[in-house]
Amino acid sequence: MLNQSLKIKLLVLGLLIFSINTISAQEEDNLGTEVVNIVKPYSPAISDAFKVKENPLINDSTNTKKKEVIYSIFSVPVASTFTPAKGKAASVEKIKPLKLYDNYATFGIGNYTNVLAEFYSDFEISSTDNFGLFFKHNASQGGIKDILLDNKFYDTQLEGNYTRRQKDLNYEMSAGIKHQLFNWYGLNNLYNAAPPEIINSIASKHSYFSGFAEGNLIMEDSYFEKGTASIRYLGDSFSSSEFNIKVKPEFGFDAIDFPLKIGVDLDYIGGTFKRNYSDTSAVKYSFFNAGIIPSYAYTAEYLSLSVGFSGYVSLNSEESKTTFYVYPKIEASYRIVDELLIVYGGIDGGLEQNSYYNFKEKNPFVSPTLFIQPTSELYNGFAGLKGKLTNAIAYNIKASYYEEDDKALFNSNIYKGQDLTLEGYEYGNSFNVVYDDLETISFFGELIFEVLTNFNLGINGTYNSYHTKYEIEPWNLPTIEATLFTTFNITEKFYGGASLFFVGERKDLYSSSIGFLPDNEVITLASYFDANAYIRYRFNKQLTIFVKGSNLFGENYQKWANYKVQGIQGMLGGSYKFDW
């Protein structure tokens, strides 16, 4: 055992000597130093977390104890002289609704033997279908002061309509006829000294007969939204004739927030005048206008915008001529201050098909020798402001600038003398139509006052400045026009209204084919006021009587050259409403 212990000691001593020799050898070799960094990502384990197992020791020098508060309420009554009023609901003026009747008849008669008669009746065929009938007759036996020829007139029309209203489909069909009689009584001053046989030989009477049929269709949840189609015929006592056919469908496409609408405008007109104003040769006209009108509408909280255009092709069959037109259609409005201030503007244009029917509706004293062609409104730029000054006052102001090619202007026909062989419209007492390129600057303003529940008042006015290209003046177009109107209720049964019109000066051209008379003389038509009023009294739910007054200033002004109007006109009549 001793030997084994000795062996162990010798082994340990040998290892120490070897280690010392190794260290001495390394110092002698001088191998240098090197640093090695070993990087290992830290991966925490649950065992790395620890928690405090001891509670903190509070050792405050001062420890305050809450003091208990004891209190009580001592009530003392206080005298008061205030006595609150009992609540009462605000009273609202109640207006008893008037009973609606399906039928009415009106009749009135006045001086100058003026007669007015109206009748309307509605028949309910079913819960969705209705049929209506309308008749109107307006006539006068004339009697205008200092007029040499007969000046009576009448206007009679009869119309019927049929409507059907369903959930996804509504349509209406209507048709009617009209018969009108007028006299070319506007002789110039040269006839004041004419012998009676000349005056008596003038056949001044002429008449119009027209008829129409029309249909309107509205569809829901369909690309085809609505459309109208109509046909109209016009003839006169000089064998003139005119047909006008119109078709106007509208389509809507709502695709990916891009609501696109497309309108189509098809308009055909054709007619014949048996002679023109210069000789006995016939005048024929035939136009077919086809247009497409796409538009995009955008609406935001304060902004409304519509952007589009219209393109037309016009075929003149009589002259074998085709013309193309393109017009802008842009309109926008922006609410700056809710309903108080709205700014709007845009630029528009279009092709207007003139017709014998429209001309005689504006001026019934035209001759049956007209030249018919369309008017092209190249553009109409406008901008304005509208809104409310207060809750009771609304306003609208607008400025416009527009240019029209072939604008139709009424102009007096040439005076041909006092020959007994002339037609009734060839004595310088009728009007023709001339066309000119016209530029117009226009300013419009309007104020509407809702002063009281039972009283409304409005005033508007327009100022126009014209520039013609070929004609000397813009014939028969006024520079200034203004209107003042009001409606009022005196009592529940007593109510009425009034209006005052002002028309400024107009220019016309006097021409003569007689050598010793002046030719191409510009004449000025004086401005005029026309005041009108009516009062109605409701006896009961069905019967109402009325009194009407027209041209209350009694001025025999001239709306057209040499055509004076009747003086003060009064009419007394009544209306009766009923059910079958």
Give a written overview of the molecule.
- The structure is a single chain.
- The chain is mainly beta and 580 residues long.
- 7% of the residues lie in helices and 54% in strands.
- It is built from three helices and 26 strands.
- The protein has helices at residues 2-29, 196-201, 356-362; strands spanning 103-110, 114-124, 129-140, 153-165, 169-183, 205-219, 224-236, 241-255, 258-273, 283-299, 303-316, 321-337, 341-352, 375-390, 393-412, 431-452, 455-468, 480-489, 494-503, 506-510, 521-525, 528-538, 543-550, 558-560, 563-564, 569-578.
Quick summary of this structure?
Helix content is 7%, strand content 54%.
Key descriptive features of the protein:
580 residues, mainly beta, Maltoporin, Chain A, 22-stranded antiparallel beta barrel, two-stranded antiparallel sheet, 3 helices, globular
Set down the secondary structure blueprint:
Elements: H1 2-29, E1 103-110, E2 114-124, E3 129-140, E4 153-165, E5 169-183, H2 196-201, E6 205-219, E7 224-236, E8 241-255, E9 258-273, E10 283-299, E11 303-316, E12 321-337, E13 341-352, H3 356-362, E14 375-390, E15 393-412, E16 431-452, E17 455-468, E18 480-489, E19 494-503, E20 506-510, E21 521-525, E22 528-538, E23 543-550, E24 558-560, E25 563-564, E26 569-578
Antiparallel strand pairs: 1-2, 1-26, 2-3, 3-4, 4-5, 5-6, 6-7, 7-8, 8-9, 9-10, 10-11, 11-12, 12-13, 13-14, 14-15, 15-16, 16-17, 17-18, 18-19, 19-22, 20-21, 22-23, 23-26, 24-25
